[in-house]
Amino acid sequence: MGMKGYKSFETERLLLRPTTEHDAEFIFELMTSPKWLANIGTRNLQSPDDAARYIHERMLSQLARLGFGNFTVIRKTDGAKMGVCGLHDREGLNGIDIGYAFLERFEGHGYAIEAARRVKQAAIEDFLLTEIYAITTHENISSQRILEKLGLEYVSTVQLEGDDKELRLYLLKVERE
Description:
By secondary structure, this protein is an alpha+beta fold. Helices cover 32% and strands 28% of the residues. It has a single domain, classed as Aminopeptidase (3-Layer(aba) Sandwich), CATH 3.40.630. The protein has five helices and eight strands; from the N terminus they run ββαααβββαβαββ. The strands form two sheets. A five-stranded antiparallel β-sheet has the order 1-2-3-4-5, sandwiched between helices. The protein has a three-stranded antiparallel β-sheet with strand order 6-8-7, with helices on one face.
């Protein structure tokens, strides 16, 4: 168990631990990167201090409420913070959605699918979710491929409140033994 009793997870190459304020500089870099802005949208962060506030208000509050949230994905060989993968209780979606994003320099090595598979397993085995949702833009083909590999299926298009962008909604219904 990691910080204050919250779970962390690992894979062959990766360590996934709950994102905290200690990750503010990394989260600021990630959330202001061109790919994040294109695929996910602005979070109006101007500085690492804004990122620390965002982590506190959005990520840690959900972690405290539900026991799961956003995980920082760290490469074991060198400790590099590469991306995030998490389970989010998102406004406008009834259900928990899985999401991931990596800094561009770490893309193309299979880290996202490795992290997402582990988070999916945790969602089912540790957090006992019965459904896992995901949303992506129409343009984000690489994200759609990951969702399909995870076993999620395209359901419909959806718009989140205050956002005119049409998104693709995916769903995995968990079959319990």
